[in-house]
Amino acid sequence: RLVLGIETSCDDTGAAVLDETGAILGESLHSQKEVHLRTGGIIPTVAQQLHRENIERVVHEALERSGVTPSQLSAVATTVKPGLALSLGIGLEFSKRFVRQHSKPFIPIHHMEAHALTVRMLQPVPFPFLVLLISGGHSLLTVARGVDDFLLLGQTLDEAPGDTLDKVARRLSLTKHPQCSTMSGGQAIELLAKKGDRMRFPFTTPMGQSYDCCFSFAGLRNQITMAIVKKEKEEGVEQGTLLSCVNDIAAAAQHTVAVHLAKRTHRAILFCKANSLLPSNSPTLVLSGGVASNQYIRNALSIITETTGLHLLCPPPQLCTDNGVMIAWNGVEHLREGKGILSPNVDVFYEPKAPLGVDITAEVKAAAIKVPS
Ligand code: ATP
Ligand code: FE
């Protein structure tokens, strides 16, 4: 069985052809990162136009590299939710035309479910397992119980950690920094943080008084911005031109994000244990999403998994960020189970907002589990 996966939910146009074992037969990815770095954020109409310009080429490239013809495909899997409406629309319209033209089954994919299950492409991780997804648009803790069966333990109440790091990086004008000009905000902060002293900016970890598994980063971003403004004033420099202590601010920001993520995850693990949501034999935490490429954050989470006896798995960075491979893999998983497979003529719509699984965040909050600091 061969599946073509198509991803256009945000700012990456991706396509890939996978076989049933998860072997990548052909892949193509067009990233819009540089364009959006220049404009200081994603402009949806620009993202849409770039998807429109690239989708055809990207899909054909993936097919060509795989040596698979459209008629040999078993199905086409495409992200239809959640994401930017204008971006999702391009991938979906293309896919609808493609499946009708070649009379292929269509598998609509939930982008976050695909992120959560990517790890199973690399090694057999049995359900259920705990997942922390941290990216530019999301921050959530979920128990993956099956291909389309998820429990949502907590999610961000405001912005996502990648978004926060990107905004801090922009406030510090890190794209003008000689070493970071082509890096995402998160990557730039990770690099500068290596040379910084986090103790010089003791930011408060968010949500210390709420004993749930939700996240919040907007308040932290405000703390960081205030610290930057204060330093700019002290040094008498213009906004966004701070030179001293940039490394220290980066280190402190990264550290506080890591501690916040680690604490919520620790609570989620204790909640899962108390409610027997994970197997007692070799329970697993999967860490994914673009922010999961951060080594400091990975280390913080590995301390938590070590102390709680969980196994930590993290797909390689290129599979943590958006790509067509993970969408094709999610299609393979659906095909194996015979779930969510539509005929080529069924009308499908995209959904910019789409919850992930059964929401038990209130139950988690009510349990009010305390974690050691
Ligand atoms: P979503 O998947 O929620 O739709 P997205 O497509 O923006 O959002 P990803 O492609 O998974 O997210 O990840 C991009 C984000 O990851 C950016 O915000 C970027 O700053 C962040 N990021 C990338 N590398 C690192 C790193 N080394 N450290 C921290 N953050 C990073
Ligand atoms: Fe993503």
TrEMBL record:
What Enzyme Commission number(s) does the record list for this chain? 2.3.1.234
Q: Classify the source by domain of life.
A: Eukaryota
Pfam families xrefs: TsaD
Q: Which catalytic reaction applies to this protein?
A: L-threonylcarbamoyladenylate + adenosine(37) in tRNA = N(6)-L-threonylcarbamoyladenosine(37) in tRNA + AMP + H(+)
Q: Where in the cell is it found?
A: Mitochondrion
Main subcellular location: mitochondrion
TM helices/strands, residue ranges? none
SUPFAM superfamilies cross-referenced by the UniProt entry: Actin-like ATPase domain
Q: How is the cofactor bound, as the UniProt entry phrases it?
A: Binds 1 divalent metal cation per subunit.
Annotated GO molecular function terms are: metal ion binding; tRNA N(6)-L-threonylcarbamoyladenine synthase activity
Keywords (alphabetical) are:
Acyltransferase, Metal-binding, Mitochondrion, Transferase, Transit peptide, tRNA processing
Biological process (GO) annotations held by this record are: tRNA threonylcarbamoyladenosine modification
Q: Which cofactor does it need?
A: a divalent metal cation
Q: Pull one GO CC term from this UniProt entry.
A: mitochondrion
Q: What PANTHER family has UniProt attached to this entry?
A: TRNA N6-ADENOSINE THREONYLCARBAMOYLTRANSFERASE, TRNA N6-ADENOSINE THREONYLCARBAMOYLTRANSFERASE, MITOCHONDRIAL
Q: Function, please?
A: Required for the formation of a threonylcarbamoyl group on adenosine at position 37 (t(6)A37) in mitochondrial tRNAs that read codons beginning with adenine. Probably involved in the transfer of the threonylcarbamoyl moiety of threonylcarbamoyl-AMP (TC-AMP) to the N6 group of A37. Involved in mitochondrial genome maintenance.
Q: What is this protein called?
A: N(6)-L-threonylcarbamoyladenine synthase
